[in-house]
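Q: I'm building a small set of examples for a reading group on sequence design. Run inverse folding on the following structure and report the sequence directly after it, with nothing in between.
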């Protein structure tokens, strides 16, 4: 909670749901990400609005492929099953578990226990790496729940994806995408994320692209990303 939360019992606040990366948990942002220090300094300098930040455990792991069955000995039949999981891409429903927890459990709990502004105009979601991918999947699937989106080394959102998410463009106030400079200096194919962000801006959305200088897929990239994102979120366009 921001400074002064316990002094003014009548004031209500926007909420940012901030997610960690793969192999981490909810302690990543407050401990390695220095979230409290970043926000306290921004608020003290008058650069960011005051808002509540919620960090939960969104751990997801790819299901392990079934073990390859051993060849049957003489007189035995071959056991059924044992196929490897198809493909290396994420399954289409990979974020559904955490999405269900967030939408149906976490957000209602936070709105009931804290002095929040319980409206999509005052609700944001962001995350790093896997958390950014979760943010993308969840906000596109729930366009009337969040109005501010931040993807830190977690992919991009294209105009084509927005077209398929009915209501996303109308309800969204910001799509913020960031990467470390060393993450994107040698792309392995595909479109440059900055170009996609520019296409989204030309599509009529408030699209912001940030590159952290001289950093890779690491916490310094994500601390800087939060520092930039926090100065934009919950503010007028």
């Amino acid at each position: 909670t921001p400074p002064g939360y316990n002094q003014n019992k009548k004031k209500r606040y926007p909420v940012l749901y901030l997610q960690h990366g793969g192999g981490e948990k909810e302690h990543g942002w407050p401990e390695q990400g220095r979230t409290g220090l970043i926000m306290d300094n921004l608020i003290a300098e008058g650069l960011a609005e005051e808002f509540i930040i919620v960090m939960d455990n969104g751990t997801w792991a790819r299901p392990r492929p079934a073990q390859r069955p051993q060849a049957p000995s003489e007189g035995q039949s071959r056991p059924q099953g044992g196929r490897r999981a198809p493909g290396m891409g994420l399954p289409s429903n990979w974020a559904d578990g955490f999405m269900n927890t967030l939408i149906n459990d976490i957000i209602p709990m936070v709105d009931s226990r804290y002095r929040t502004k319980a409206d999509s105009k005052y609700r944001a979601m962001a995350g790093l790496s896997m958390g950014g991918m979760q943010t993308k999947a969840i906000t596109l699937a729930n366009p009337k729940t969040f109005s501010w989106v931040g993807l830190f080394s977690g992919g991009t959102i294209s105009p084509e994806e927005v077209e398929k998410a009915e209501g996303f463009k109308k309800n969204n106030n910001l799509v913020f995408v960031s990467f470390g400079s060393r993450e994107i200096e040698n792309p392995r194919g595909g479109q440059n994320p900055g170009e996609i962000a520019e296409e989204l801006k030309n599509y009529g959305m408030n699209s912001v692209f940030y590159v952290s200088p001289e950093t890779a897929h690491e916490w310094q990239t994500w601390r800087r990303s939060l520092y930039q994102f926090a100065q934009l979120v919950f503010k007028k366009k």
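The two ends are 24 Å apart (CA to CA).
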